[in-house]
Amino acid sequence: MLILLCVVGMMSAWTERFGGVVTFLATPGINSVLNPVVGPEALTGSSRMKGGSMTQILLESLFVSAISRCIAPASKKPDICSFLVARDTDSAPGTTRDTVAHVLKLFESAYRDAYMDTRGLAHVVESCGAALSSADGHLYYVGADSEGILGLIDASEMVDTYGARLDEVRAFVQGGWPVCDASEGDLSPKGELFLISWDDFMRNQLPGLTCNDAVVVINPRVNSDVVVQLLQSKAAVSAVFVEHSGGHNTDATVDHFTAAQWPRHCAQIMLTAVPRNLLVAQMLSDFALKLVLNVITTGAN
User: Fold this and answer.
1) Given a cut of 90, is residue 19 above it in pLDDT?
2) Pairwise CA distance, residues 272 & 274, whole Å
3) Quick one: how far is CA 195 from the chain centroid?
4) In this structure, how many other beta carbons lie within 10 angstroms of the beta carbon of residue 39?
5) What pLDDT score was predicted for residue 121?
6) pLDDT band at 6 (very low <50, low <70, confident <90, very high)
7) Hey, which residues does 296 pair with through a beta bridge?
8) Are 274 and 284 in contact (CB under 8 A)?
9) Of 64-68, 119-123, 143-147, 230-234, minimum mean pLDDT range
10) ∠21-22-26 over CA atoms, to 5°?
């Protein structure tokens, strides 16, 4: 109940204190407390990499398993769990516990895949680190849909975590605020730092890019105006690719570059355990991308 109030945007009406929340959660038979032990967080910013990632794994594993169990009776298809979380070569999970375990294995595979391209990732981190070590350098993420939103989230953590300038690390999403589905609507009128669309980037940032700036394009698209102009700029332009061993990505309608086609440094995430369901596949892709973006900004700082 309390968590749902946060999710639906009712934080302005929040009246509970920490003690009240703990008391509520301690009520027998009503609630469960999940407290993953992730070990020491020796690096600045690693709480988002370890604790934040573990929280995402737990919640999405629970939600996918719960949804699959809710859908199964209505659909009258006993293999609905297999449809949601299994690959073609997997057998259908049986109990809810089996489903949760299966989803956790998918996350474990995505986690391992995210870090496989150490050479490419090191090149991207190095170019971004050079930009942030410059007095007037910037790091910009450019992406579309959930990939761009993940860039926004990663960039938003830099001021509090590393004391970065407000304009030092920023992200831009194709379509801007409407794509983000923010509860407050379009925040662009609040100021220059709230201009987050590709059009804003091309109008305000791209013309002034220098050799001290770094831009990371997430799954760059062929013939995209912003990509074409970036490759002609003075900035250090690199890319992050999220690809599936059975195909490029979850959006088959968009013509993307592949890592082999990209002319600059890039980091490639090749997911090897991809379920048939596109929503779950996208969930795993976003998780792996989150890990890589966290590595880029943590290593660069």
Assistant:
1) no
2) 6
3) 20
4) 8
5) 95
6) very low
7) none
8) yes
9) 64-68
10) 120
